[in-house]
Design brief:
By secondary structure, the protein is an alpha+beta fold. About 30% of the residues lie in helices and about 25% in strands.
Amino acid sequence: MPEHDLDTSSVHGTYERLIALLDSAGVPYRLVDHEPEGATEAVCALRGHPASEAAKCLVLRVKVDRRTTRHVLAVVPGDRRVDLDAVRTLYGARYAGFCDAATAQRLARAVPGTVLPFSFDPELELVADPEVVARPRLYFNAARLDRSLCLSGADYRRLAGPRVERIATAAREAS
């Protein structure tokens, strides 16, 4: 599904749902407005923090067997990459790879570059690397290219309830 085909009310709704969740839980957070950007390194520069403090959010397709496919929202530090072998092993799966754009947008209810480290869809399982939840400050685009959010990794863990597993590897190991 091309970006312009994603229902804009759905995207707006994702942002509103996130803010409502944070406000209702009384979690301290900070909004950061910036030039529209979705690439991790570039948006970190705009927000003024190291990439290690960013939450990189990737929607994955995990084939457990011929008949069973699961969708996983993998959250890793911005200076790392998702370890697909670790995800595959975690699920005892035959295959783990990146989801097609249309499915990712439907499940994440956000366009590429704005995927939240929260899942608002029961078909999208949330797994975060321990380094993400350990951060005193965690930045991510807030379902918008022009606005980001910062909160503590501990508050993120408490509110989002991710499965916490080691799923990140050093970016330099990328092939």
